[in-house]
Amino acid sequence: MNSCQLRPNHLALGSHEDIFIVRALGSGIVVCLYDEALKTGGMAYTLFPDSRKAKESNPEDRLKYVDTALEALLEGLLEKGARLERLWAKVIGGAKIFRFADKLENGDIGKQNIEAARRWLREKAIPIKAEDTGDSFGRTVYFYLKTGKAEISAVNNYKYNL
């Protein structure tokens, strides 16, 4: 069993026995894509909604943004033999950690990340199988590629599965 802990602005691809972990997920968003037939999947952990709003374009920043990180995740899965029509998604995160987030210059980044992920998945016709987004608390995510299950741990040691 191989486990991989993702940091912000990273993605991971794997299969069968792999487990992907994200700790202290706040306003960032995690999208898990999974091909059940191959037991192959991936996870992207990104912090910002839209690369087109970036002040500068830098290829090294591709994984910072929902749109470009998910494109990279999809490309990687297709290269591993996954098929677009078999993929489904789980979307996690996008919390509103600060009560005053709406008053910030960029607004509620968590909400924007959720909307960007949903929009990208809708454009690619990838169904969202499960979602745990929003609210005002952080999460820890475990994504098990053997089963496609995502286990979420939240405040007060509350655990649940998606």
Provide tags for this entry.
single chain, 162 residues, alpha+beta, 60s Ribosomal Protein L30, Chain: A, 5-stranded mixed beta sheet, 10 strands, 35% strand
Q: Can you walk me through this structure?
A:
The chain has one domain: 60s Ribosomal Protein L30, Chain: A (2-Layer Sandwich), CATH 3.30.1330.200. Helix content is about 20%, strand content about 35%. With about 160 residues, the protein is of the alpha+beta class. The protein has helices at about 65-80, 110-125, and strands at about 5, 10-15, 20-25, 30-35, 40-45, 85-95, 130-135, 140-145, 150-155, 160. Strands 1-3-8-9-10 form a five-stranded mixed beta sheet, with no helix packed on it. A five-stranded mixed beta sheet has the order 2-5-4-6-7, with helices on one face. It has two helices and ten strands. The mean pLDDT is about 90. The two termini are about 20 Å apart. The longest helix is centred in the C-terminal third of the chain and has 15 residues, at about 110-125. Strand 4 (about 30-35) and strand 5 form a beta hairpin.
Distance between the termini: 21 Å
How is the largest sheet built, in terms of strand order? Answer: 1-3-8-9-10
The first-level CATH class name: Alpha Beta
Q: Helical content, roughly?
A: 10-25%
Global structural class: alpha+beta
Share of residues in strands: 35-45%
CATH topology: 60s Ribosomal Protein L30, Chain: A
The sequence of SSEs as H and E is EEEEEHEHEEEE
Radius of gyration from the CA trace?
15 Å
Helix segment tally: 2
- CATH architectural label: 2-Layer Sandwich
Query: Outline, from the CA principal axes?
Result: globular
Protein name: Probable chemoreceptor glutamine deamidase CheD
EC number: 3.5.1.44
Function: Probably deamidates glutamine residues to glutamate on methyl-accepting chemotaxis receptors (MCPs), playing an important role in chemotaxis.
Family: Belongs to the CheD family.
